[in-house]
Design goal:
single chain; alpha+beta; 6-stranded antiparallel beta sheet; 10 strands; about 25% strand
């Protein structure tokens, strides 16, 4: 076995750095949304402005995001419901969309199973940024709306004059995060599991521990490494039993 080149703490910093990049992107989009949206934008104008922001990221070579956009609160658009200005990047074959070669707009009118979005304020990706006024990471979870695969969603509140007018956000495939983060975790020479605050596994170098599995967040005798700026921490797989 090769000699370790990173400590678990250094690997945790790599995780934090990746999510810091995402937060910087969202901060830029948040400021742009505030700059281009009047108090009552039309949904057509809103979609055009958001599309100009997110489509270059989704259409980039080796794009990090599989979904991105802005979810507008009714208070912004003057409508009775939330408005999704949301796009999906190119997708491999899946039960919802099939395969797509380029970005596509999310059209909720074609979905017969989106009634739960009517109460969007109760959903974690909206509720937590609204209450904390901070960026939030939801997941990992299976995205039944679009990709039918494990993703994480990162959302940041967009606020004007002290009121929430929506959230900007991105979806990232867990399998993409695995590709980006596994080299750092493997470089420690110790089997590690990356988990969220609820003990849900995001990435693992232990083959018997799969993404989405639930484990103890504080296993007995474990020394954990907190990933800065994220809800994630690295746990030694050997302590999970």
């Amino acid at each position: 076995m090769a000699e370790p080149t990173l400590t678990p703490g250094e690997a945790a910093e790599r995780v934090g750095a990746l999510f810091s990049r995402i937060q910087v992107t969202l901060a830029g989009w948040r400021d742009a949304v505030l700059a281009v949206t009047p108090d009552r934008p039309t949904t057509t104008a809103l979609d055009a402005a958001i599309g100009a922001l997110v489509l270059p990221e989704l259409d980039a070579a080796d794009a990090l995001f599989v979904g991105a956009g802005f979810i507008a609160a009714p208070e912004l658009t003057g409508t009775d419901s939330v408005h999704f200005s949301w796009w999906l990047g190119p997708l491999e074959e899946n039960p919802v969309y099939g395969a797509t070669m380029g970005p596509t707009r999310l059209d909720l009118t074609t979905r017969s199973y989106t009634d739960y979005l009517r109460d969007f304020r109760s959903l974690e990706w909206y509720r937590v940024p609204q209450s904390t006024h901070r960026t939030h990471v939801t997941g990992p979870y299976v995205d039944h709306l679009c990709t039918c695969d494990y993703i994480v969603t990162v959302t940041a509140p967009v606020e004007r004059d002290g009121r929430m007018i929506g959230v900007v956000g991105v979806d990232v495939f867990v399998k993409r995060l695995e590709r980006d983060l596994l080299p750092a975790l493997l470089a420690t020479g110790v089997p590690l599991v990356l988990v969220n605050a609820d003990g849900r596994v995001l990435v693992s170098t232990e083959p018997s521990v799969l993404a989405g599995a639930a484990v103890a967040t504080e296993p007995a005798g474990a020394t954990t490494a907190v990933c800065p700026g994220t809800p994630f921490r690295l746990l030694p797989a050997a302590t999970l039993g």
